[in-house]
Amino acid sequence: MTANPRAGAFLEIAGEEIAAAKHLAGMLPRQAAYFAQQAVEKIARAILAKEGIPFGVSHNLGQMAACLPSGHLWRPRIAAFDRLSPAATSYRYPTPAGRLQPLPVRTTLDADIAAIEELLIDASRSIAPSE
User: I want to staple 46 with a disulfide (CB 3.0 to 4.6 A). Which of 10, 24, 57, 101 is the partner?
Assistant: First the structure.
């Protein structure tokens, strides 16, 4: 199998982002949630790149998953993280009324980070399997 450099680059960034999320979870949970969402987004973009499926600039994980053919192995795995899609922006900006979103629940954030780490391992194996 020939490696896809763009997919590999997305996975490298995803690894950095999930490491940042893990590091920030206790101190800055909003930023950790943002990086967790971004890691899934990069994994999804890696899968789409591997499949030759273009995708625009949206951060919506459900839309990314829906671009994959029905029955595709990765479609439900990416879609399962769609609830994280709002974290791409909701934790980075105040509401129009000037309020901040509530902090993510730490136990949920930790569970999400662990699940994303597993997703990244599986995606790395799928995109760049050992020879």
Answer: 10
User: What is the predicted pLDDT for the residue at 41?
Assistant: 98
Query: In which residue ranges of the chain is pLDDT below 50?
Result: 1-2, 131
Q: Which residues are within 8 A (CB) of 72 and not within 5 positions of it... i.e. 6 or more apart?
A: 51
Cβ atoms of residues 61 and 116 within 8 Å: no
In total, how many domains does the chain have? 1
**What pLDDT is stored for residue 19 in this prediction?**
99
Give the CATH number of the domain where residue 35 resides: 1.20.120.330
What are the counts of helices (DSSP H) followed by strands (DSSP E) for the chain? 5, 0
Q: Of 10, 17, 16, 13, nearest to 32 (Cα)?
A: 17
Contact 127, 14 (CB under 8 A): no
